[in-house]
């Protein structure tokens, strides 16, 4: 530790190394958190259900999404990204997933909410298999930390179906 | 600041001051230096202070549930550590090495090395 510059370099290097260790421990402390989220989605209305000029089915619906995701937040959470996807099976694909709506929850206070909305993104099928189709609505969430690894999980809600005829 | 007041201030702070040159006696360079004991002390203080502040910052952040608090406490700790260990404070120079004064060195000339012309040659 001979000179001013030498000591300054030593201090900064050691400080940054310790900061990296602190961030690692912070990220590991997230494992002590056991989340217990809950959600409910109601389809209020099928606005319209048509076959597009290219031949694909499209449906527009209004839904009421209510959820309590407060237990997902820790001191190391920056934001939670959530989205609602419709999942169903067709002859061609064993699983189709179509994202209908998403949002970013920036803080714990906003994590308990309900929203009445039409689908943000178009619900279009690859083909015309949607008449009378039974589908699941899944609420996915991605927890984005301030430091560390992102984690994701979902809730699957079953029992939804589309009308038999176009409207 | 006049040389006199600068001198008085330096001697008050603990720097050894010479009246002739109005500069601290730490030669050979004109910069203030630390002695060997001081360097070791500075390194120890730095490592211990940084670790203590890191632990304090993590505990504070975890208890308060605030990541920002952890970073702020740690940044404050790093700055404080830097202020204490990086500049050449006088308490790092309590065991100074007293270099020989140039006028004193002239009185004791270096011994001359005589090169003897004895060579052992290997004749082919």
UniProtKB/TrEMBL annotation, chain A:
Membrane topology: Single-pass type II membrane protein
InterPro entries documented for this protein: SPC3
Any one Gene Ontology BP term: signal peptide processing
Signal peptide annotation: 1-29
Record's subcellular location: Endoplasmic reticulum membrane
Alphabetical UniProt keywords: Endoplasmic reticulum, Membrane, Signal, Signal-anchor, Transmembrane, Transmembrane helix
Domain of life: Eukaryota
Chief place of localization: endoplasmic reticulum
UniProt GO cellular component terms: signal peptidase complex
Function: Essential component of the signal peptidase complex (SPC) which catalyzes the cleavage of N-terminal signal sequences from nascent proteins as they are translocated into the lumen of the endoplasmic reticulum. Essential for the SPC catalytic activity, possibly by stabilizing and positioning the active center of the complex close to the lumenal surface.
UniProt record similarity statement: Belongs to the SPCS3 family.
Name of the molecule in the record: Signal peptidase complex subunit 3
Protein species of origin: Gossypium mustelinum (Cotton)
Lineage: Eukaryota, Viridiplantae, Streptophyta, Embryophyta, Tracheophyta
UniProtKB/TrEMBL annotation, chain B:
Source organism (scientific name): Gossypium mustelinum (Cotton)
Localization annotation: Endoplasmic reticulum membrane
Keywords, comma-separated and alphabetical: Endoplasmic reticulum, Membrane, Transmembrane, Transmembrane helix
GO cellular component, one term: signal peptidase complex
Protein name, per record: Signal peptidase complex subunit 1
Membrane-spanning ranges: 12-32, 44-64, 71-92
Known function: Component of the signal peptidase complex (SPC) which catalyzes the cleavage of N-terminal signal sequences from nascent proteins as they are translocated into the lumen of the endoplasmic reticulum. Dispensable for SPC enzymatic activity.
InterPro entries: Spc1/SPCS1
Keyword check for Membrane: yes
Keyword Transmembrane: yes
Sequence segments annotated as region (Disordered): 103-124
Domain of life, per lineage: Eukaryota
GO biological process, any: protein targeting to ER
Family label: Belongs to the SPCS1 family.
Main location: endoplasmic reticulum
Its membrane topology: Multi-pass membrane protein
């Amino acid at each position: 530790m001979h000179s001013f510059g030498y000591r300054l370099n030593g201090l900064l290097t050691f400080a940054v190394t310790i900061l990296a260790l602190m961030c690692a421990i912070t990220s590991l402390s997230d494992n002590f958190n056991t989340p217990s989220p809950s959600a409910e989605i109601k389809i209020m209305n099928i606005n319209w259900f048509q076959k597009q000029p290219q031949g694909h089915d499209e449906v527009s619906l209004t839904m009421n999404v209510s959820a309590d995701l407060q237990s997902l937040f820790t001191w190391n959470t920056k934001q939670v990204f959530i989205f609602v996807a419709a999942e169903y099976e067709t002859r061609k694909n064993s699983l189709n997933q179509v994202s209908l709506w998403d949002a970013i929850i920036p803080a714990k206070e906003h994590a308990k909410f309900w929203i009445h909305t039409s689908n943000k993104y178009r619900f279009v099928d690859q083909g015309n298999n949607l008449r009378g189709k039974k589908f699941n609505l899944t609420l996915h969430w991605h927890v984005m930390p301030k430091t560390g690894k992102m984690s994701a999980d979902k809730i699957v809600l079953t029992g939804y179906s589309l009308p038999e005829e176009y409207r | 600041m006049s040389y006199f007041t600068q001198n008085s201030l330096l001697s008050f702070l603990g720097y050894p001051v010479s009246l002739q040159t109005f500069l601290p006696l730490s030669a050979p360079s004109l910069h203030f230096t630390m002695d060997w004991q001081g360097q070791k002390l500075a390194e120890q203080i730095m490592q211990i202070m940084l670790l203590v502040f890191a632990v304090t910052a993590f505990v504070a952040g975890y208890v308060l549930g605030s990541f920002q608090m952890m970073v702020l406490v740690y940044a404050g700790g790093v700055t404080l550590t830097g202020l204490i260990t990086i500049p050449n404070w006088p308490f790092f120079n309590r065991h100074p090495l007293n270099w020989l004064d140039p006028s004193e060195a002239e009185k004791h000339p270096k011994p001359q090395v005589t090169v003897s012309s004895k060579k052992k040659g290997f004749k082919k």
